[in-house]
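Re: [help] complex structure
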Amino acid sequence: MTLGRVVGRVWATVKNRPLEGQRLLVVQPLTPELSKTGKPLVCTDAVGAGAGELVYWCKGKESSFPFLPVEVPTDATIVGIVDEVHAQRAKANERAC
Amino acid sequence: MILARVVGTVVATRKDPRLEGKKLLIVKPVSPEGKDEGNYLVAVDTVSAGNRELVLLVSGSSARMADGCKDTPVDTSIIGIVDTVSLDDPPEGKR
Amino acid sequence: MLIARVIGDLVATQKHDSHHGRKALIVQPLNLDGSDRGDAVVALDSVDAGIGDRVLLVTEGYSAMTSVGRPESPIDMAVIGVIDRIDLG
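Output below.
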């Protein structure tokens, strides 16, 4: 899963049928330090996320599982709204790998 | 999923039988701001998208979950025609 | 699978049911020389890993879901081992 922020929304009237009723949110991927990384993408939403919220999202076919038994053709879904992130980078990796 | 713009069509007479009757479109990924991004893709159209339209693409095995793509050798499907993209930031918003 | 280091965790009250009761870790995938390999990701924990641990990370749905015992769930990454030692030839 990846951290991200909801930065927008997509409206599409004509959709593949199982996609009907799904909210489509534009998400900017973020690092744990909350700086932007990579390109924004469009996600379906399984948790009721809103504009500006910090979320984490899941990619791949797994991202369609929250909507079963409807087979929603999505490859990215928001699966959590993040309250807090705790991250501390190790000091120059104590041991080499 | 990503946004893309339809820029062409592909016609193939000899193809996997499971692709028969499917419309193949050439699409170019675009950013939510509408800028061109990355290289083209060939996608199966499930929503009767037209040339130059902004569309929603799904890729990977999820592409086969689209209505009309079950059990087909498809890795990218067009599953929506985008009316509007609204962005909180930058404020120019709708396009 | 990738080698990764746990660098943190996150708290999310509102999340998909399948994620409840599983710790969500922030893990940084590593190269063999210990440098960062791409961006840090969020993975569910199946082995009670802690911050600073070097771990084994699966980055594919089937393995991730089954390792945390939540089949048919929106889980694409999981920590499935704590690494004791790596020997490079």
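Residues 2-81 of chain B form a domain with the OB fold (Dihydrolipoamide Acetyltransferase, E2P) fold (CATH 2.40.50.220).
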